[in-house]
Predict the structure.
Amino acid sequence: DIQMTQSPSSLSASVGDSVTITCRASQTINTYLNWYQQKPGKAPILLIYAASSLQSGVPSRFSGSGSGTSFTLTIRSLQPEDFATYYCLESYSIPYTFGQGTRLEIK
Amino acid sequence: EVQLVESGGGLIQPGGSLRLSCAASGFTVSSNYMNWVRQAPGKGLEWVSIIYRDGTTYYADSVKGRFTISRDNSQNTVFLQMNSLRAEDTAVYYCARRHSSRNAFDIWGRGTMVTVSS
């Protein structure tokens, strides 16, 4: 099974800041990497698919990069609605594996 | 409107059984790869099971042999039969569609809560 290591587990930032979240896979997953945002009591929302493609309707301040085993999610110019928990998900092989999550909090 | 609506959750004793339903609208479940994902209280997301378009099914090791995913094409609904439930199965269970070409879970339901406790 593929292991996904996501860091940091939590992050404090201010409105207007830029932040980066990282996911590393235990083996190559090409670009089969997706990023999700989840707010308390709500279902996850797809932000980025195929490592770097922006899901329709998602603001362009969200971007993803990487391939192979190392991936990043960058959020530029943080907005108040961006404070949430973020997860990566590898969809390369079953069992699909999520990262442990990154809680983004307001500083 | 494209959406998924889960139902069937509740409080169940350890060792009991429960069947979750996921009703789809706006698309056909039999033409898609449908998944169940769960989230224990205060914890992260865990993939549980998938049913392919051809009916092939896969499970996480944590539920293999106890859970069964299926679908009813006439109802456009996916099910998760959960047997021999344990306390560690307590979670919100989400139904999610895996987009066929983007290989990502693009549509999610709101989830249904399952609590396993005596």
Remarks:
- The mean pLDDT of chain B is 97.
